[in-house]
Design a protein that fits this description.
Elements lengths: L10 H4 L19 H14 L1 H18 L5 H24 L6 H10 L1 H26 L1 E7 L5 E7 L4 H22 L2 H8 L3 H14 L1 H18 L4 H28 L3
Antiparallel strand pairs: 1-2
Length: 265
């Protein structure tokens, strides 16, 4: 699988590449810029409302289905880079006054498909590794014993996390989830618009997110609180209002964040 392929880029794609200088490690921005990022996303959505509304509703429906079919979460991790990458390509064209068609977007995604798959796989690997670490650290214990006859016994016990152990597990789990988000949030844009390899894009994404940890924590805390209280909201209201809002906010603002963090003004 070829994931280092920046030279095989068509003329059509080059029309929508960002010509400005790229800050590969990212730079620090003011958290108050979140409002401007959302406004920029709303303007792009207003230029192609059918496309944006279709994508947002499809993502919201998929997120709702995950509540009934948890196994869909693994598929979501693999598909998110394609959704974000496609919207980055669309919004980049809109910001330059060069709206792109759905066919052009799919063509650009096809050219970067290997790289986007790798980003999804890396993100899934981070989450899977984190799950194994949590399981081994908080739920699995080895018990060795010796009987009077000299026989040795080694057993593996599984128990749930309670009290302080449960709190530590939740904290560590949130940290691992934050690492996965930080390393993948900007990577699709860097792959789609700057021809970066998945490895370099994810490192740059993590670096840019780390430099702007107050912004990341604001998003992460808001989304975490919303998800925790989602179970208290009636299903119909959650499906029609809360979930679409949780999907729309990051998707509408991520392009503006990418521009401020990585692209020379």
């Amino acid at each position: 699988m070829n994931i280092d392929f920046p030279r095989g880029v068509s003329k059509q794609t080059r029309l929508h590449r960002v010509p400005a200088r790229l800050f590969s490690g990212g730079r620090e921005v003011n958290p108050q810029r979140i409002v401007d990022w959302l406004a920029s996303g709303a303007r792009a959505a207003s230029q192609q409302p059918v496309l944006w509304l279709s994508v947002l509703l499809a993502c919201a429906d998929f997120a709702t289905l995950q509540g009934f079919l948890p196994l869909l979460s693994a598929l979501a991790v693999l598909l998110i880079p394609f959704v974000v990458g496609g919207l980055m390509f669309v919004q980049d064209g809109a910001s330059k006054g060069q709206p792109v068609s759905l066919r052009e977007t799919f063509a650009a995604l096809a050219r970067r498909s290997n790289a986007l798959w790798v980003i999804g796989l890396y993100g899934a690997a981070i989450l899977a590794l984190g799950y194994v670490v949590l399981l081994a650290a908080f739920h699995v214990s080895l018990n060795a014993s010796v009987t009077a006859s000299g026989a040795h016994n080694l057993s593996v016990a599984y128990d749930g996390g309670h009290g302080v152990r449960g709190a530590l597990e939740s904290l560590l789990g949130a940290s691992i989830f934050a690492i996965a988000i930080a390393s993948t949030c900007f990577a699709p844009a860097l792959v789609m618009l700057h021809d970066m390899t998945p490895h370099d894009a994810m490192i740059s994404s993590a670096s840019g997110a780390a430099r702007n940890w107050p912004v990341m924590m604001t998003y992460f805390a808001a989304l975490t609180v919303a998800v925790l209280f989602a179970t208290m909201v009636p299903l119909m209201l959650r499906a029609l209002v809360l979930t679409p809002l949780l999907v729309a906010v990051p998707l509408l603002s991520i392009y503006g964040a990418y521009r401020d963090v990585f692209v020379d003004r």
